[in-house]
């Protein structure tokens, strides 16, 4: 999918350069290592422990047809991500964790992995661990979601058929979500299933070739990491300045 950007480019302004490529690669590696570890240890394992201690069982899920199991995983993940994503656009603290992702100034296949580590952890949470489902179904569902999400971020000049765009998020939907105006970002929250937005009334048609926030200021990896702590850092600096003034 990344290679397709080099042969079927959608927007010249989103052309991948070396800095963007290695930044994206860093976040992709972070997601498969530290974020994955944190999600497993801090969310999935505790959920499984609670499930076991309360004697909760969903044996029925193991007897569903394979495609139904895959669909169930996709629904559980996307339903949770939709509401978490929507919360991030409607609460100042959660927005502070998510805003770095909106500071990207171009969309590319790996851009879905870019963001503040706390946001990447929060958006990874799901209740799939509470259900008895075969690993094969989970593997299939997560790979489908990954492919759809990557395509929705990719700078590829290719529009999917209408039936696909009715259910799944496309670059048109998602680029509009990344518009430069904050109010314009409050739509199309579905990471892979735009159907969620159609159901809950947050769908908006359109496309934006210009993306970013705060006058399209691109953030470094370090700036993205400390972004939610900026108010605290500024207060500390202010107090230090006041202390220095008093001492003088």
Could you walk me through the main structural features you see in this protein, from its secondary elements to its overall organization?
By secondary structure, this protein is mostly helical. 60% of the residues lie in helices and 0% in strands. It has helices spanning 4-7, 18-54, 59-62, 66-88, 92-102, 117-124, 135-153, 162-167, 171-177, 195-200, 221-226, 230-247. Helix 2 packs across helix 6 (117-124) and helix 4 crosses helix 7. The N and C termini lie far apart (60 Å). The mean pLDDT is 93.
| Ends apart, CA distance between termini | 60 Å
Structural class: mainly alpha
By DSSP (H or I, 4+ residues per run), the number of helices equals 12
Question: Outline, from the CA principal axes?
Answer: globular
Please write the string of helix (H) and strand (E) elements. Answer: HHHHHHHHHHHH
| Main sheet specs | none
Described by its quaternary structure, the protein is: single chain
Mean pLDDT metric: 93
- The portion of residues assigned to helices is 55-70%
Strand content: under 5%
Number-wise, the strands total 0
Radius of gyration, in Å, reads 20 Å
Structural features:
single chain; mainly alpha; 0% strand
Q: Outline of this structure?
A:
This protein has helices at 4-7, 18-54, 59-62, 66-88, 92-102, 117-124, 135-153, 162-167, 171-177, 195-200, 221-226, 230-247.
Describe the secondary-structure layout.
Elements: H1 4-7, H2 18-54, H3 59-62, H4 66-88, H5 92-102, H6 117-124, H7 135-153, H8 162-167, H9 171-177, H10 195-200, H11 221-226, H12 230-247
């Amino acid at each position: 999918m990344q290679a397709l950007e080099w042969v079927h480019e959608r927007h010249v302004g989103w052309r991948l350069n070396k800095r963007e490529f290695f930044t994206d690669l860093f976040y992709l590696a972070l997601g498969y290592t530290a974020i994955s570890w944190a999600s497993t240890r801090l969310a999935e394992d505790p959920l499984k422990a609670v499930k076991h201690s309360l004697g909760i069982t969903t044996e029925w899920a193991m007897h569903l047809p394979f495609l139904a199991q895959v669909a169930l995983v996709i629904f559980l993940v996307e339903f949770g991500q939709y509401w978490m994503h929507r919360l991030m656009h409607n609460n100042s603290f959660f927005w502070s964790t998510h805003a770095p992702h909106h500071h990207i100034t171009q969309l590319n296949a790996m851009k879905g992995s870019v963001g503040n580590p706390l946001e990447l952890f929060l958006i990874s949470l799901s209740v799939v661990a509470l259900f008895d489902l075969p690993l094969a179904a989970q593997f299939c569902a997560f790979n489908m979601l990954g492919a759809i999400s990557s395509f929705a971020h990719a700078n590829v000049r290719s529009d999917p058929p209408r039936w696909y765009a009715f259910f799944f998020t496309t670059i048109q939907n998602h680029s509009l979500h990344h518009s430069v105006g904050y109010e314009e970002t409050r739509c199309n929250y579905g990471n892979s299933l735009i159907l969620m937005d159609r159901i809950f009334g947050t769908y908006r048609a359109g496309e934006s070739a210009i993306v970013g926030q705060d006058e399209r200021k691109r953030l470094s990896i370090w700036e993205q990491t400390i972004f939610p702590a900026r108010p605290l850092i500024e207060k500390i600096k202010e107090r230090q300045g006041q202390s220095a003034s008093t001492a003088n």
